[in-house]
Amino acid sequence: MNRQLRLRAGFLMVAMVLAGCGHDVADAPVTLTMRRSAPLVIAVDAQGTLKATSSTPLMVPGPMWSQRQLAAVVDDGGRVKKGDVVARFTAAQSKQDLTQAMLDLARNKLAREGKQADLVETRGKLGVDLAEVASQLAIAERYAHATIEAVARNQILDAVQDQHYLNTKQGILEWRKDQSGRRGGAELSVVDAKQATLALKATQARDNLDALVLRAPHDGIVMLKADWTGQKPQVGASFYAGSTLADLPDLDHLEVELQVPQVEAQGIHPGVTVELHPLGEPQQQARTTVSWVAAASSPISRQNPVKYLAIKATVPMAEARKYGWLPGMQFAARIVLADAKSVLSVPNIALDDHGQSVRVRLEKGGRIVWQEISLGVRGAARSEVTRGLVAGDRVVLVANKEKSS
Q1: What span, in angstroms and rounded, lies between the C-alpha atoms of 200 and 178?
Q2: Are residues 313 and 187 both part of a single domain?
Q3: Rounded Cα distance, 116 and 126, in Å
Q4: In this structure, how many other beta carbons lie within 10 angstroms of the beta carbon of residue 249?
Q5: pLDDT for 127-147, tens place per residue?
Q6: 158 band by pLDDT with thresholds 50, 70 and 90
Q7: Are residue 175 and residue 323 in the same domain, yes or no?
Q8: Mean pLDDT score, 13-30
């Protein structure tokens, strides 16, 4: 009986010891020993599109806002040389406008000739009437100044009345002649103004018909421009003169525009190394640097709320010509934030932002103390330490409370 009680008491004590040991193991902090400096590579993967830094817009030729239909166009991405035909257009409306303008010009010319003939006829009639009045007035004046001995008194009185009447009639005819000239000149001016307007319309229609061919201003690759629906120009589609049909990129200056998630974009700045290659062609490698970084990140689509930071990297022209890279190609990129052979680094889980400083917890002599450090390059998972840690330091990753929680 006593032996059985002693065995039970022994088992109970062993269980209590084991339970105590298990609690210590569970509450022990997770630490990382900084043994020595080691190689560190911090890189971010991204994808983007190859673009030209500058391009020449190819606009539909013709007077502004005149309409035309696309009859032929080179393929999207097709190579052209300076002077090559990029697109041809038809303008049925312009042909109709020119025909109508020429017809209106002929009608207006006939109208002017009619106005001119009417003016000449009116002035001729007035001239005849004035000559007749002048003749009658001369006779009346002669009799009006005759003596009674020469003619009868009643004839003299009639001659005086005729003289007054003829003077009045002559004044009216002179006024009508003057007004006829002025009115006729004004009517001819209106006809001439209309003639000038019709001539301008005819010239515009003729120029419109002469501008139905779009040629390349320099060598390049034709990149057809999509409309708001995403459709590229197609034969038979209608366009307004002055609208952009395509772009002709400058193949001597290329760049890749990359989209990097905001959470991974820490530390990216102009001058950072970028390794590029086309998607599916990892052997076509090129090495360059970041040339531009957007001021702020933003979503790239309405369906995706994740914010991305846009960056650009200049493409070396030697590799671009060697591999035949063209605008529009999709590229994969590796943005190298840090590539050091011997540095100290810590996981980001150990970092604590304390005001303007950064600190970590160190285990020293069984105690946990705070240590302020300085960081170099910060990656998404690990960061470079430039000051505050030495080889042999034990960095606490998860403390007691955090481990138990």
Answers
A1: 33
A2: no
A3: 16
A4: 21
A5: 767 677 677 666 666 655 555
A6: low
A7: no
A8: 45
